[in-house]
Design a protein that fits this description.
This protein has one domain. 73% of the residues lie in helices and 0% in strands. The protein has 11 helices and no strands.
Length: 240
């Protein structure tokens, strides 16, 4: 049975000579909401009340500047909302295309940027899959944080499954992912957690490192899917 280190090794071998392609494709997929595995970080900032009062008084003294800043803020907010909606709508199809790219990568089957845009013919199914996945994870998260995390691992393989089985519905792909992940959620958690150190190092580079970490994580995820699917096929055939 392969472990996290094995999947990372497969990913590194698959990425040899294709790092630039993988980084560029991963960046495009990320911008379009098509990530499959999760990796990232965040932060927060605050200002004290004295600074806030000084800023407010400065804006009050410059009404033209205040109006400009408010308009700029409103414009940025509208753009952000539209962008989020676009990502939500097309993200499912992009994630299917990105699954194709990463499977081609680990299978040494000539991956290309065009793979990311190849699954829009299944747009409706992909949208339903993405919407239901987000809804299920959200509902389980409302119960408690841990069930939400477990649910996210249960449905993680849905983009791969729907790509390889386009005759399925989005709901069926989620159910198939849940079935496939029985007994494998902890393995995926260990694989995901094994990138924690790299995530910290990437955060130190102000996020630039994530451009290279993301393809590494996604390739390992594709190798993971390929392996557990093969293990399940052997079990069903009575080979184990």
């Amino acid at each position: 049975m392969l472990k996290a280190a094995d999947f990372r090794q497969i990913a590194r071998e698959s990425l040899k000579g294709k790092w630039l392609l993988a980084v560029g494709t991963g960046f495009i997929a990320y911008l379009l909401g098509g990530s499959i595995m999760t990796v990232g970080g965040g932060g927060s900032a605050s200002i004290n009340s004295e600074t806030a009062e000084q800023a407010a008084s400065g804006l009050a003294a410059e009404p033209g500047l205040a109006a400009f800043l408010l308009m700029a803020l409103a414009t940025v907010s509208v753009i952000a909302i539209v962008y989020a909606l676009v990502m939500t709508i097309i993200g499912g199809a992009v994630s299917m295309g990105y699954a194709k790219f990463n499977l081609n990568l680990v299978n040494r089957s000539n991956p290309s940027v065009e793979d990311v845009f190849s699954q829009f013919k299944y747009f409706k199914k992909a949208f339903v899959m993405r919407f239901l996945k987000g809804l299920y994870v959200l509902l389980w998260t409302f119960c408690f944080i841990i069930p939400g995390i477990v649910a996210s691992f249960s449905y993680a393989m849905a983009p791969y499954i729907l790509y390889e089985n386009p005759d399925m519905t989005g709901s069926e792909a989620l159910a198939a992912s849940k079935e496939l992940m029985k007994g494998n959620k902890w393995r995926l958690f260990c694989l995901d957690f094994s990138f924690f150190g790299w995530s910290l190092l990437s955060a130190i580079t102000l996020g630039i490192g994530f451009l290279f970490l993301r393809p590494y994580v996604e390739a390992a995820g594709a190798a993971f899917y390929r392996e557990i699917k093969w293990e399940r096929m052997k079990q069903q055939a009575g080979m184990e």
